[in-house]
Amino acid sequence: MSGDQVFLIEMVLVFGLVLAWAVWELTSLRRSRKRDQALEAERARHAEGQHRPDQG
């Protein structure tokens, strides 16, 4: 194998790893945003002062 072929293979592998990492981070960010939005919606539904006082 010539040096050019090795260089090309190495560049493809590095680019593939960087691309895989970027996709993983974007997916993780999307999951985190959905989780935060669901938590915020839950807090909004149970906002202070919107429930009757406890009977106990």
From TrEMBL:
The keyword Transmembrane applies. Residues 32-56 are annotated as: Disordered. Residues 35-56 have a biased composition (Basic and acidic residues). The chain crosses the membrane at residues 6-24. Keywords: Membrane, Transmembrane, Transmembrane helix. This is Heme exporter protein D. It comes from Brevundimonas subvibrioides (strain ATCC 15264 / DSM 4735 / LMG 14903 / NBRC 16000 / CB 81) (Caulobacter subvibrioides).
